[in-house]
Specification:
With 206 residues, the chain is of the alpha+beta class. The protein contains three helices and twelve strands. It has a five-stranded antiparallel sheet, covered by helices on one side. It starts with a helix and ends in a 5-residue tail after the last strand.
């Protein structure tokens, strides 16, 4: 499993986040309960100093990455690290955090340039994007939120209402009993020709 470049990248983030020798990537499907697929996570096996909010990276060849961090706090042994991975045409985006749920998505700028996008992706109260880049911006934000929720596209993206593509990213409505304000949502720097977003539930996206 760890021969996968995406898995190696997300484990590197987990190690950077915790200072622990994190080697194993785990999956758990919230739908069927199986462990062979689904939401990724890892476990820190030793005490370390770690950042308490999100660390994210988008990488290609040559490597381009961003690693936002926050003030350090101690983490206890056997701390679970929430992880998220996204792939798009040779680019990998990955994110890791403690004490939160996290989702990341990256796509080519033109990914949402298809007929019928509004019908499959937009909440009834969301305006139609002005162009392909705006549509893809909406898409990566929504998919990041749904990944953080643990459902991915098993939940209809039309049930998520976001701020306008040109406005600061925010979740206004979502299919969860918790208030939408628990979701931190940001746009990430990404390699040229790509758009990316990061969502953190119960924490802070920085």
């Amino acid at each position: 499993m760890n021969g996968d470049p995406a898995h190696r990248l997300v484990l590197e983030l987990a190690r950077a986040l915790t200072g622990s020798d994190v080697r194993e990537l785990h999956h758990l499907c919230p739908n069927c309960g199986q462990t062979g697929h689904g939401v990724p996570s890892a476990t820190a096996t030793a005490s370390a100093t770690a950042t308490a909010t999100a660390t994210a990276s988008a990488t290609k060849t040559p490597t381009t990455s961003t690693t936002p961090t926050a003030p350090t706090t101690p983490t206890a042994p056997e701390t679970t690290i929430a992880l998220s991975i996204s792939r798009a045409d040779g680019v990998i985006a990955a994110a890791a955090t403690l004490h939160s749920a996290i989702g990341i998505d990256i796509e080519r700028v033109e990914a949402a340039a298809f007929d019928g996008f509004a019908a499959v992706a937009l909440h009834p109260d969301e305006p139609s994007p002005a162009n392909a880049a705006e549509a893809t911006r909406v898409w990566v934000r929504k998919e990041a939120v749904l990944k953080a929720l643990g459902s991915g596209l098993r939940v209809d993206p039309r049930t998520v209402r976001l701020s306008a593509p040109g406005a600061p990213p925010a979740v206004l409505e979502w299919p969860d009993p918790r208030p939408a304000s628990v979701v931190g949502l940001i746009d990430l720097d990404a390699p040229r020709g790509y758009l990316a977003a990061l969502a953190v539930i119960g924490g802070r996206a920085v």
